[in-house]
User: What shape does this take?
Amino acid sequence: MIELEGVPELIDPVMVAAFEGWNDAGDAASGAVAHLDREWKGEVFAALDAEDYYDFQVNRPTVWLDNGVRKITWPTTRLSVVRIGGAKPRDLVLVRGIEPSMRWRSFCNEILGFAHELGVEMVVILGALLGDTPHTRPVPVSGVTSDADLARTMDLEETKYEGPTGIVGILQEACTHAGVPAVSLWAAVPHYVSQPPNPKATLALLNRLEDLIDIRIPLGELPEDARAWQVGVDQLAAEDSEVAEYVQTLEEARDTADLPEASGDAIAREFERYLRRRDPAAGPSPEPGDGSYLRDTSSGLTRPPKRKPGPEPEPPSADGPAGAEGPANAEGPATADGTSAADGDEAPPEA
Assistant: This one.
């Protein structure tokens, strides 16, 4: 049985989790949880035993010096708690770690054990995947759940995905079977600029989290970092005519797909976020081919291949192939190391 010492009784706690690796393109999801932990000065109260879940040949420990004494940091998953002040205080339980190498069911059971002992009301799992989305447009963020009632009451998508999944999908299903409300939020990261960090995607996840659990998150320098990131990618893309042309194609496809989104509901959501931020009582602030891309290591962009003679291909959809989940595509899952996954109809690969 999990015994927690030194953790006070929590107020309406929500667990927010993210895992580095397969589910974390551009480090956007883990970066979001790290931001919450840093801004609210989270206090670590538990860590899972690294020996139980990690292959140290895959996730290497690191050695460092502390006043001349050599110490080792083992890859693991840590839990911390933060209290959000304001007129309606509440607590967040932050879970941040690396996707485990083994014993996923036991791993999820441990996380759920902590959630039960702390009285967690809902689990929100953050993820990011690589997709056919232009860096010049707002980052698409999809909210999905396996719970039909939760999908209806919180205006989320009910996932219909079938195929390979990662720890985000496994943890969400474990929560559902345990009767714990669980939601996954997925940000789509441009596959042609996949290297971390991606502050624009991190910011988009935090904005969606604000809306989902009705809190105000202090963003610090993140909006400025996101703007600087986009300016930097603009400059790199402008130096390569093929990349610039490809980005323009993605923009046209995205704009066409987003026309229905210029709705009263979308405008209302943005206006509500604007009002909340003005309210001080809200709280503190592969091999080259027709479908592959060539890595330009000097610029950090992934260049589209030169077209071969033949019929003009259809422009890529902003949402990817119907019914696809990112990691189920041929190029593999969304990762921080540059492997790609198309942005599917359901967007999230793990729901």
